[in-house]
Amino acid sequence: MTSDAARQWGLHRVTVKYGDTTALDNVSLDARPGEVYAVVGGDGAGKTTALRCLAGAVNPTEGSVSTPGRRSIGFMPTAAGVWGDLSVNENIDFVAAAQGVTGQSLSDRREELLEATGLTGATSRLARQLSGGMRQKLAFSLAMLHRPDLLILDEPSTGVDPVSRIDLWRMISRATADGAAVVMATTYLDEAQRASQVLALDAGEVLIEGTPADVLTRVPGHVSIVDAPQDRALAWRRGRTWRQWSPEDPPSGQPRVEDLEDAMVAAGLSKEVTHA
Prior knowledge:
- By secondary structure, this protein is α/β, with parallel strands linked by helices.
- It is 33% helix and 26% strand.
- It has two domains: 9-207, Rossmann fold; 219-275, no CATH class.
């Protein structure tokens, strides 16, 4: 780990284009040691492009990227990150050789990660024979095996069971406690709520950003809980009630939104109204 706790990495006004398609449009994010930065958004929002750009797998068309260098980055791609025809131990050995982790350091790190993931009894099992949650935890272990300064996780908990999600978050917390800067894409807003910073993307553009608390106060207009919608184009159902968005400021004493889910929907509706 770097000893410079004040060091920041990230994307700086980055635009990524593939021909006539703009995947990212003037996007910035700062990754700070000891913190989790959550990138949220639906399919096609630009989350994976942003993370791949930060990992050095995609070059920006415009803007700049600052990182600690590839040897100090751990990257867990979505739905990948393990070699199915290798056993759990062979996956660890392969990545350790690539990252230069050897000897007692490897033995200690192997034991630590296997215990944290609950994979101690599955070391000889092929990765493709593991459950989805176990594969994700193995992929996470491989990404953080060499104790990277910058840990990049692309939807690490998507499709895994609730217990495995808890295990993954324990490991994320351990990584940040060790001083890593963690940048993760997620579709789960309850996970984004745990992050230090949140960046919401929509069609490659920044929808809203800030700390989870800041995001709730920066949403344009306000959301009310109603029994029946006044304008269905600006309303959506949650549970047994409706949420109704208005572009006007909330009445005195009423919060703009209740949580990140409302904030995301409200910000998206505000963008649609503005661009209409």
